[in-house]
Design brief:
It is built from eight helices and seven strands; from the N terminus they run E-H-E-H-E-E-E-H-E-H-E-H-H-H-H. With about 230 residues, the chain is of the alpha/beta class. Helix 6 packs across helix 7. It is elongated, with a radius of gyration of 26 Å.
Amino acid sequence: MNDETNTGQRAFRVLVVDDERNIRKTLAVCLESLGCAVTECGTAAAAIDSLARLPHDLAFVDLRLGKESGLDLLGSLLAERPALEVIIITAYATIDTAVDAIRRGARDYLPKPFTPAQIQRAVEQARSRIELSTRVADLEEQLADAAPEVMLSTPSAAMRAVLDVISRTAAHDVPVLLRGESGTGKTVLARALHRQGPRRGRPFAVVNCPALSEELLTSEMFGHVKGAFT
């Protein structure tokens, strides 16, 4: 398995799990022609071991692995590497198994026999999703660096009372109005409230209200009817 491209970058790693050697070899040749580094496995145990030893980006998993179930293996693979893109392949395609595979976390479901064009499309789509996920993670990291979390600590009894109100309020799904002069820390408190609340895993958006007209502010906060400003 060649793990680097000609440019020195890590190759796109693909795990092929099928109990039929001919299928594994055919799929591996197709994937390697696309520049992928391929690991072939004939059993569920071998697949789990390979994934534990080396991270992979994409896996093609046969629905029936002898007496073993590819759907059961799917759960084990995702438990080992949640970001793994998994495509179930099978010669026994049914709507029920396709729905079950997607429900269990498979990205796609590909009936046999498949064509090189289908494999190429599956790889390209997986690459695109992974690249998008990486870009989003990078942007989130940049955003966190631009607005790092602040550990709030103060000897002031009045300020400690404010922080206590923030902590108690964060547990409730209610609108909160923070009032104060410019520079008194309203945004810092708003971030602390967001960080402690049930939406902490979602984006924190800041709108500079004084920079907007009354009409645009209303539109930004509550939306507007199409054509309202024309």
